[in-house]
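Protocol step 4 of 6: structure prediction from sequence.
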Amino acid sequence: MIAKTGAAAGDGGGPVGALTTAEREELLRLRRKTRQQEQTIEALGKATACFANPGRHHHLVRRPEGGGGAA
């Protein structure tokens, strides 16, 4: 079987089933967005654990400098 190419395939010159330039760009954009969202979810999960158990994660909490302690 011979794959259609060019105008006959309707995709701008590649073999049937190949991604167009616009589709490749969109795929890359969506993969980047997914990676960013996964990183955000991970950070939010860590923050949630920190606030849910403040005694266990005291080393992750930043305290204001020079305030609140006994002199």
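Step 5 (inspection) to follow. Residues 21-52 form the longest helix (32 residues).
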